[in-house]
């Protein structure tokens, strides 16, 4: 099923993913606070995309606590529908794809490589994106980029503005696509292929990203949420807002402030989390980052 080249085929029932079994749509939509229409059209896709970004944070707290589970459809659904918790791209987009399919959307899970457009060696598999067919258009849906676009982007070349942010979609000479992030984004964007893959194809990438000492997700605690006019990021113990209004960073001084930021700024309940351990790790990471930024002693 290639949603980009054969719309008729994309809508054929015998090409629809079989999925892991019934999705508890009611529980999922309750997590999103979504009570509107469920028809598989562009308006519903846009509303669901916004609702997931507003309700489900991008975060790697389980990775920081060393309790990562193997990637599975049942696992991502259980995690994303749990009150207050979130995940990263494989989990967030993995679960979102299952919800969309349960509502009747045609969805393709596609491999991407976050980095520079001209990177000579893209790291394929460091990101999972979605292509969704709705209203006669193929859309790039991505609830797992951290500070990414709040509305799906049409899969066609051009620049797309959402509030103060502008995103670029470009068809590359090799048939791949470039999805360029806005200028205040944490990453430049990502290259993307359009061949559909099962969630299981991303299991090795999830294992590497969640357990390897070389992975940035293992090295640094991160929680993110896109807002209409800025992005909100907790990296280590540094709480940052960034956007057209400027960049503002606050170093959280203690565990209490850290817990308050998680609960009030990102909606993550802390009662079931080992926040003492998380804060200690985050503080160590930030201290190391500050040390690297400090000018060398002149002696």
Residue-averaged pLDDT, rounded?
Answer: 92
Secondary structure: number of strands: 13
Largest sheet report = 8 strands, antiparallel
CATH fold-type name of the largest domain: Arylamine N-acetyltransferase fold
Proportion in β-strands: 15-25%
Count of discrete domains: 2
Global Rg: 19 Å
How are the strands of the biggest sheet laid out side by side? 5-4-3-2-9-8-7-6
- Helical percentage: 25-40%
Low-confidence stretches: 6-20
CATH class of the largest domain: Alpha Beta
CATH architecture of the largest domain: 2-Layer Sandwich
* Cα shape: globular
Number of helices: 10
Give the terminus-to-terminus CA distance: 64 Å
Order of helices and strands: HHHEHHHEEEEEEEEHHEEEEHH
Task: Provide an overview of this structure.
There is one protein chain. The chain is an alpha+beta fold. The chain has 2 domains: 7-204, 2-Layer Sandwich (Arylamine N-acetyltransferase fold), CATH 3.30.2140.20; 212-292, Arylamine N-acetyltransferase (Arylamine N-acetyltransferase fold, 2-Layer Sandwich). It is built from 10 helices and 13 strands. The protein has helices at 7-10, 25-32, 42-55, 61-64, 73-80, 89-102, 203-211, 216-219, 255-265, 275-293, and strands at 58-59, 106-114, 127-134, 137-141, 153-154, 158-162, 165-171, 177-180, 189-192, 222-226, 231-235, 238-243, 246-251. The strands form 2 sheets. Strands 5-4-3-2-9-8-7-6 form an 8-stranded antiparallel beta sheet, with helices on one face. α5 crosses α6 (89-102). The longest helix is centred in the C-terminal third of the chain and has 19 residues, at 275-293. The radius of gyration is 19 Å and the shape is globular. The N and C termini lie far apart (64 Å). The relative contact order is 0.14. The model is unreliable at 6-20 (pLDDT under 50).
């Amino acid at each position: 099923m290639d949603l980009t080249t054969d719309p008729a085929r994309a809508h054929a029932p015998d090409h629809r993913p079989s999925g892991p079994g019934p999705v508890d749509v009611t529980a999922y939509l309750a997590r999103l606070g979504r009570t509107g229409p469920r028809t598989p059209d562009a308006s519903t896709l846009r509303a669901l995309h916004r609702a997931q970004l507003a309700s489900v944070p991008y975060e790697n707290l389980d990775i920081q606590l060393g309790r990562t589970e193997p990637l599975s459809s049942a696992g991502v659904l259980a995690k994303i529908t749990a009150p207050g918790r979130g995940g990263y791209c494989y989990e967030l987009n993995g679960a979102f794809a299952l919800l969309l399919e349960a509502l009747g959307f045609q969805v393709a899970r596609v491999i991407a490589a976050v980095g520079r457009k001209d990177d000579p060696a893209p790291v394929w598999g460091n990101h999972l994106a979605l292509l969704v067919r709705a209203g006669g258009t193929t859309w790039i849906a991505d609830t797992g980029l951290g500070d990414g676009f709040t509305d799906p982007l049409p899969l066609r070349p051009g620049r797309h503005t959402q509030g103060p942010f502008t995103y670029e979609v470009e068809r590359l000479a090799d048939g791949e696509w470039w999805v360029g992030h806005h200028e205040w984004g944490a990453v430049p964007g990502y290259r993307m292929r359009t061949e559909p893959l099962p969630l299981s194809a991303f299991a090795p990438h999830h294992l590497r990203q969640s357990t390897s000492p070389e992975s940035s997700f293992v090295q640094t605690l991160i929680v993110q949420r896109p807002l209409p006019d800025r992005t909100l990021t907790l990296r280590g113990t540094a709480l940052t807002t960034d956007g057209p209004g400027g960049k503002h960073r606050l170093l959280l001084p203690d565990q209490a402030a850290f817990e308050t930021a998680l609960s009030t700024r990102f909606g993550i309940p802390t009662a079931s989390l080992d926040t003492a351990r998380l804060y200690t790790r985050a503080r160590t990471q930030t201290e190391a980052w500050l040390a690297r930024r400090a000018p060398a002693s002149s002696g």
